[in-house]
Design brief:
This protein is an alpha+beta fold. The chain has a single domain, classed as Gcn5-related N-acetyltransferase (GNAT) (Aminopeptidase, 3-Layer(aba) Sandwich). It is built from 4 helices and 7 strands, in the order βααβββαβαββ. The chain has a 7-stranded mixed β-sheet, with helices on both faces.
Amino acid sequence: MIELRSVNHHDPKTAAAIHAVQMVAYAQEARLLGIRKFPPLERTVCDIQISAEQFFAAFDDETLVGVISVGPDECPEVKNIVSLVVNPARQREGIASLLLHKLIENYGAGPITVQTAAKNLPALALYAKFGFVEIKRWFVGKEALELVRLHRSGTSNK
């Protein structure tokens, strides 16, 4: 059974577990997108420990299988999903939906933003299911990765 809880990412062991899941998930995403240089893969355990984000993790027993983090957006009243990843071995089990629901339960009274790659169709479908709508597209990097920024208005809990 999956248990969701807020975690202390400043703790070295917790940060290392978060990092491990992020690295396997982001490696998979980089392959899906067909790019070699993927900035999330450059994130270190130390980066996680010192971040100002709030992390919620999904555990199966005591094994971290997915994590979502939220931080401040450009506007102080808006929260931004910095990361949502699930261990590839545990994808298609509804873990990402559980994590997103938990985040909305905690922060859904106000607006929430997120950005993802335009080619990441599973992520776009998930966010649409939770009421996010596209507000912007742009290209970054030498490989011209197309990103999509999504926005969810507050108050409704999907």
